[in-house]
Design a protein that fits this description.
This protein is α+β, with helices and mostly antiparallel strands and 489 residues long. The protein is 39% helix and 28% strand. Helix 2 (113-170) packs antiparallel against helix 3 (175-228) and helix 5 (442-454) packs antiparallel against helix 6 (460-471).
Length: 489
């Protein structure tokens, strides 16, 4: 009985579950059928119109500006190295980092004692050589006189010999007298030969004395040069950098003491890609002398310097790409070698190009223009340049002209070909936000002024401008923030 009761209970529960499931399926099916059988409203649905910002495409001549970053360098720099070894016995007061020197100005002197001694010895040797030369000249004169006397004696003996032969032929003289006269004449001729040899030796001595004097003069010049090398002077007007010498210090030959930089001869070096470099060439393949502007932002003040392209690197460096280009800077006040600046180079003028916002160009290389019915029409364009937030384009070959058309300024995924849009009026340019100003307390103002006046490495023009701003009742908050950040406060 218990088994039958449990079986009936289970059967009842299973029947109830199946009934509930069947009811759920019926309810779901009824809802779907009701949804499908529902008819739409009788009115027609209107087309959706999107509001877009548009710009007028106007073709005109535009000179693109190439913006890159470069480093300021000095076109004229010289490493000051010691030409002699020894201790520094004298050092000029201007020999310090940033010291301004003039051409030919004395900088340092290395102990000249050894060089001075060598110079004195060289002068003594020259005096000995000149004395030897004078002695050789006198000996040469005496040798010439002795040779002349020997020749006169030989002539006399020769005439006496001839006279004895004449007497012998006349029968007056004897053979012994003739032989004695002949022997005397031969001895006289030998004496002439001896004097000629002495004259040749005197001439050789004169030549040797001249050679010795010349060598002494060379040694004297070398000693004078070595003495001059103990004094270090400025080769040109400029400023000293990387000074590594102190008075009393010992230096060796060719040791670097400082670097002399000409601050008036600056240039900027920057690297461009190969396509960008190709745009800077003229028809002959030479680098154009295009105008350049280098700018450096510091303390809210932009330091700018105009310049001109001068040359490009002769070879591509190992592991480098593109081209390294140099531009000479004019009136580069405030800029120093090593500054990292922004460089803007003017490229050749492009005719009939259109400037559009960068957001107007799609990834497919096309822009969306409005037709007569205010519907969007994609137009293929050729991208020429990117200029910050703008692009310079032309209508692609075979595409409809773009000049004079209204172009969507900001594309979005909702916009496409054939979509009807409503162009918005160009929004008026928002006025620039006013610069925040601060009223400083007297202590805070004095602390900032003292900091600016104490910065001797700051250009004079920048220092004067900052002092003028700090003297005002209200000071720009940006300037105060930068100064206090550098002060560490």
């Amino acid at each position: 009985m218990q088994f039958i009761r449990r079986s009936l209970t289970g059967l009842f529960l299973m029947s109830l579950t199946l009934g509930l499931l069947a009811y759920g399926v019926y309810a779901l099916n009824s809802a779907v059928q009701e949804r499908l059988a529902r008819t739409p409203d009788g009115g027609t649905r209107e087309e959706r119109v999107f509001a877009v910002n548009t710009v007028l495409a106007e073709g005109r001549a535009i000179a693109p500006v190439l913006t890159i970053y470069g480093e300021v360098r000095s076109r004229r720099s010289l490493e000051l190295r010691a030409k002699a070894s020894g201790s520094i016995v004298e050092l000029a007061d201007v020999v310090e980092d940033g010291g301004q020197v003039s051409e030919g100005q004395f900088l340092a002197r290395i102990d000249p004692a050894d060089a001075q001694s060598a110079l004195d010895r060289a002068r003594s040797d020259l005096m000995d050589a000149r004395a030897e030369g004078r002695d050789a000249a006198r000996a040469l004169d005496l040798a010439r006189d002795e040779l002349a006397a020997a020749r006169d004696q030989s002539d006399l003996q020769e005439r006496a010999f001839q006279r004895q032969r004449d007497l012998e032929q006349r029968g007056v003289g004897t053979t012994a007298a003739v032989e004695a006269a002949e022997l005397t004449a031969a001895a006289a001729r030998g004496a002439v030969l001896t004097r000629r040899q002495a004259l040749a030796g005197a001439e050789a001595r004169v030549d040797q004395a001249a050679t010795r004097e010349r060598r002494a003069e060379i040694a004297l010049a070398e000693a004078e040069r070595r003495l001059a090398d103990t004094t270090l002077t400025a080769e040109f007007t400029g400023a000293l950098s990387d000074v590594a010498v102190v008075e009393g210090g010992v230096v060796s030959v060719n040791e670097r003491l400082a670097t002399l930089i000409d601050p008036a001869a600056l240039e900027v070096a920057f690297r461009v890609s190969t396509p960008q470099f190709a745009r800077l060439l003229d028809r002959d393949g030479s680098l154009r002398r295009a105008p350049v502007t280098a700018s450096l932002e510091a303390f809210g003040l932009n330091l700018t310097a105009p310049g001109t392209l001068t040359r490009a690197s002769a070879a591509v460096g190992e592991g480098q790409t593109g081209r390294l280009v140099f531009a000479q800077l004019d009136r580069a006040q405030g800029l120093k070698p090593g500054d990292f600046v922004t460089v803007k180079v003017s490229e050749p003028v492009l005719d009939s190009v259109i400037s559009l916002p960068a957001t107007a160009l799609g990834a497919d290389g096309a822009v969306l223009a409005l037709d007569a019915d205010s519907r969007l029409e994609p137009l293929a364009v050729t991208l020429l340049r990117r200029q910050g937030d703008s692009v310079l384009v032309r209508a692609a070959e075979g595409a409809p002209p773009l000049d004079g058309r209204q172009v969507v300024a900001q594309r979005s995924p909702l916009l496409g070909a054939g979509i009807k849009v409503r162009p918005l009026a160009a929004a008026a340019a928002a006025p620039p936000a006013p610069q925040a100003m601060l009223e400083l307390t007297r202590e805070r103002r004095e602390r900032l002024i003292a900091y600016v006046e104490g910065r001797r490495d700051m250009p004079a023009a920048m220092r004067d401008k900052l002092l003028d701003q700090l003297a005002q009742a209200r000071v720009p908050a940006r300037v105060v923030e930068r100064l206090e950040t550098r002060m560490g406060g």
